[in-house]
Amino acid sequence: MQLYEQTIFSLQQMLKQRQVSSVEITKAMLNRIEATDSAINAFITVTPEQALKDAKAADQMIASGQAATLTGIPVALKDIFLTDGIRTTCASRMLDNFIAPYDATAWGRMKVQGAVLLGKLNQDEFAMGSSCENSAFGLTRNPWNQDHIPGGSSGGSAAAIAAQQAVATLGTDTGGSIRQPASHCGCVGLKPTYGRVSRYGVISYASSLDQVGPMTRDVTDAALLLGAIAGYDPKDSTSVDCPVPDYHSALKNDLKGMKIGLPKEYFIDGLDPDVQKAMDQAIATCRSLGAEFVEISLPHTNYAVATYYLIATAEASSNLARYEGVRFGHRSETSSGLIDMMMQSRAEGFGAEVKRRIMLGTYALSSGYYDAYYLKAQKVRTLIQRDFIEAFKSVDILLTPVAPTPAFRIGEKTSDPLQMYLSDIFTIPVNLAGICGISVPAGFSKDGLPIGLQLLGRPFGEESILRAAYSFEQATEWHTKKAAL
Ligand code: GLN
User: What is the pTM of this model?
Assistant: First the structure.
């Protein structure tokens, strides 16, 4: 096996036994990026000098007996995470030349452990999208089939794993942006409970929904990386002050006694037959491992997409007001006067989808429409949340598809935003409810595109979805398959 194909867990052992150095692993990854990224475009910025410097420091940490979980492991970050002294664009022209003045907490926690930063990954602009086509730095291609999208918005984070350009990456998930690209690229993606991981230093999209999480080759690595980034942060008032369990030791290979709910609203007629088949097989596998299945109902599921696109755009319109060309970001050079400068800067700096969302959100919040749209959406959000609370009274976790279809073709949905929004139907309710969810590889379509399985847990129930995902993974071989590049 090549160095670039290894996991956090396997590299940890190899580093500990001095079979390899972090500098060697890092060079292997940088060569791999060099060889593959002209085809995939997973990276917006590659940081080879920084990476080699970090790797040398990590080797010293290991030599002096100070190794932690991530010491010497080469990783990459969605370009939404602020990285001290390194360009952070959020895939927008608006932040084209923005050098972050400090680190996001999640990255800071990895950095103190000695993780090695390979670079910053492509995404949909300001995390708005489901295909990674809304980037000012060009689209990212799916390593399994380059005519297809990798999913979004954390498309670069998923594609980099599938193309074996990074051992692990971080993404963010506001409405599915970790789980859906993980599903489309055949990797593991975990959206933690709202409040589990600090959002400090993560560029805000919709603050009541945004959450940071790991994207990895397997479930063990997801548990290791979550353990490194989770926990209370006084700098993020929405992070929750409760102890971080040892996620790695929660990985029991056993589903005996676990009650899994199948929400009937998620197994609909329009489901792609290959996705349906993968779900049927997964259910059979989990059953053979001792799980018990129960059909349940989440009756307000149908309202989730509409609710989400009102709340997310409303919050986005407010969050994105800070980009006015005065303090940071793009400033128009062709404007006259202050107001014109702000308007021109925004007109030039934002892409079409971001503008669409700002307009939608501003409309939903405007007086006269606030009650009809925003307030109503907030009420429906509570109903959706209650659906899950009710369901978790009778089952431990839920099993659903991640997306109704495998990765679609590049360009297929760009002219029809509504179709694009609808592809988030199974991931969005999870963010509205604030619960946790994981996507695990569960098969392939006839055309060889990966299909993911979604497991949902109670608030702060990451251990149970990790355990179920791990048991499923150990019983199947989907996670061992590799895209030919
Ligand atoms: N596709 C959804 C959107 O465009 C979700 C994006 C996300 O989770 N960041 O809003």
Answer: 0.98
